[in-house]
Amino acid sequence: FKLPSDSFKYLSWCDIEEHDVRGNQLHCPRVREGPSKEELFFRGEELTLKKRKEVTDTEKWQKKLQENWENCAELNLSFQDLGDLYQVENFKRILQRLIRVEKLWLVDNSLTDLSAIRLPRCRELNVNKNHFTSFKQLPKTPQIQHLSLAENNIRTLCGISDLRHTPLESLILKRNPCEFQERYRQLVFSSLPNLKMLDGIPKLPEDSSPPDVRFFFKMCTIL
């Protein structure tokens, strides 16, 4: 038994006809594309193919104008279920157009590498619950102030110094393997001298202890 909404289940918001909603008017749009023709055939849903038509160049241009990602200032693209390669490619295509976004959420999208993406105005980025293993895989964010990387797979702090030249004030690395590294907080704050808060805890005096004091505590006294 099919519901009335079944004919729309594989459509993104901009593929629905007879509306003039722009991308910058949406806070949490669905951008994940529907299955391919071959996938629909194997699922036994080939009847939905009749609803599809060839898209002309004019219609492609109209769709690009309707998406209007260039004017988005705040956007949530979390939980997009990017299970196939073509989904990831389409997702990155959209990210490359976010030249004015200031706040961006990309939570739980199984992302592994966004190093080719540049977000020139992004001040707040949330990429929790993805599959990043290194700071080198993050997008370029020269204006970043608040960065959340909780529940990824970042094992070392190698590459964190790339954020030194940004105005980063708050960083969250909870539930990453690097959190268990010896002198974790001291190493992070020494790499990012402008950082004010780590994992929700403000910078403490012991987080910036001078090197000679740390060395002193490693020495032993023989009486």
Automatic annotation (TrEMBL):
<keyword id="KW-0433">Leucine-rich repeat</keyword>
<protein>
    <submittedName>
        <fullName>Protein tilB</fullName>
    </submittedName>
</protein>
<dbReference type="InterPro" id="IPR032675">
    <property type="entry name" value="LRR_dom_sf"/>
</dbReference>
<dbReference type="InterPro" id="IPR001611">
    <property type="entry name" value="Leu-rich_rpt"/>
</dbReference>
<keyword id="KW-0677">Repeat</keyword>
